[in-house]
Design a protein that fits this description.
Length: 453
């Protein structure tokens, strides 16, 4: 057995030596070189995988933020809609609720509609700010004056939130857009009303001399509340419990963006132990010797949205006796406009499409029986832009005088406005608008009748 093993070992060794001699040199396994190209390829692949993983995580965070923002917008839209549904039920029920309830329903509907319109404006401004297209009209103002006016507006709406404003001798001189900052303050106070059970809202205005002088408005409750100000943190921040994210609004989102566009910020202030609050910081105005506007001056006052009464006063005459063409693909919109303008004494013709409107337009113009047209822009098939273009071509062909035409659309973007005016519209109005505002806009486009002067 031992002899057989030895013979086998000898034969194996001889065969191995013979194969080694016949093996080409390039098949010999080379020593492992850490700097060889193969290792560089592995490192490159690993880097690409890491970058792809990071991009995927960023995309997931963006999706989460998008879903949360859409949920926020949905909540904001549904709140006034719910009030509208409730008050409409009261009105549809007739007199069974009583005269007082009917009056409250009318007031409530008006308030809900205004809230919905303000929300649409906020959404458009938020989109512009995110694209870097939000324009700021800066002027010298005093933040203290705007704060006092915001408090007055809050109390004028019947809100019972107690606000203690300690401004001392500092007025907070800044160069900022007064309308935008006023809206930020309104949103800040409106947010605070949701947590009025924490006691009075304490406001403190300070001018801080850092490397960059700042004007700071600190807002906090008498009773420390982490929940009240948690909404100012990013909604996707994992350190903020889901239940404490309540209270965030589109207005607050835009408020932070507006402050950042001014070179400032709006965020939670953790500097004071046990007294959490929020701080609005804006760059102080450089000392140029220019006098600050008086708190009661036009520059210091926040712009007030015109109500129906003030809008009506802007018209040079009523719509009584005017012959008006309404073109809108939404039957509800046609009915509302026809009813409102008809009640004002106008003679209204309505069409639901450009194809239906053009023959009607030509017939009315041929009989000199048309004074003004109001067209929707976003209509299926031929839209309002194409329709007004055809109207202007018909004027040139037949020698008709220029007809005043108003664009009434929900696509209230700057680009759409420029396109509409370039196509031949004389005025661009964004939905929704009140009937009084529409009547005033129509009246301003029609020259006064000299026979009635």
């Amino acid at each position: 057995m031992a002899a057989w093993t030895a013979a086998t070992t000898t034969a194996t060794t001889a065969r191995t030596e013979r194969l080694s001699k016949d093996q080409p040199p390039e098949f010999d396994p080379p020593p492992r070189d850490p700097t060889a190209p193969g290792d560089g390829l592995v490192a490159k692949l690993q880097a690409e995988l890491s970058a792809e993983r990071a991009a995927r995580e960023r995309a997931e965070r963006v999706n989460v933020a998008r879903d949360e923002f859409l949920g926020l917008v949905s909540h904001e839209l549904r709140t006034p809609l719910n009030a509208m549904v409730g008050w409409l039920h009261v009105l549809e029920s007739g007199r069974s609720f009583g005269e007082q309830a009917m009056a409250r329903a009318t007031t409530g509907l008006s308030r809900a509609v205004n809230q919905q319109r303000d929300l649409v404006d906020l959404l458009l401004d938020t989109a512009r700010a995110m694209r870097g297209e939000l324009r700021l009209e800066r002027e010298p103002i005093q933040l203290g004056a705007l704060v006092r006016q915001a408090i007055d507006r809050l109390h004028a709406r019947g809100v019972s939130l107690q606000v203690d404003f300690a401004e001392g001798d500092e007025q907070g001189a800044i160069d900022a857009d007064p309308g935008r900052i006023a809206r930020v303050l309104d949103e800040l106070l409106a947010h605070a009303t949701r947590f009025a059970d924490h006691g009075p809202l304490m406001l403190r205005l300070e001018e801080k001399a850092h490397s960059e002088p700042q004007v700071t408005l600190h807002a906090g409750f008498a009773a420390p509340s982490e929940t009240a100000w948690a909404a100012f943190r990013t909604t996707s921040d994992p350190t903020v419990p889901q239940g404490r994210r309540r209270g965030l609004s589109v207005g607050l989102v835009l408020g932070r963006l507006v402050c950042e566009l001014h070179g400032g910020s709006l965020d939670v202030d953790d500097s004071e132990a046990g007294a959490r609050g929020v701080e609005l910081r804006l760059p102080a105005r450089a000392a140029t010797g220019a006098a600050s506007p008086d708190p009661g001056s036009t520059a210091a006052r926040a712009p007030v949205v015109a109500d129906a009464a003030s809008a009506e006063g802007g018209g040079s005459r009523s719509v009584a006796g005017l012959r008006i063409l309404i073109v809108d693909d939404q039957r509800e919109m046609r009915d509302v406009l026809a009813s409102v303008l008809g009640q004002g004494g106008a003679h209204v013709e309505a069409a639901g499409s450009a194809g239906e409107a053009m023959p009607l337009h030509d017939s009315l113009r041929g009989r000199q029986a048309l004074d003004i047209a109001v067209l929707d822009i976003a209509m299926p098939g031929e839209d309002g832009i194409a329709l007004v273009t055809r109207m202007r071509e018909a004027e040139r062909t037949h020698g008709w005088p220029r007809l005043p035409v108003i664009a009434l659309t929900a696509h209230a973007t700057t680009a759409m406005r420029e396109q509409a005016l370039a196509a031949g519209f004389d005025r661009f109005l964004a939905k929704p608008l009140s009937p009084v505002e529409l009547c005033a806009a129509i009246a301003r486009l029609i020259p006064p009748d000299p026979t009635n002067a």
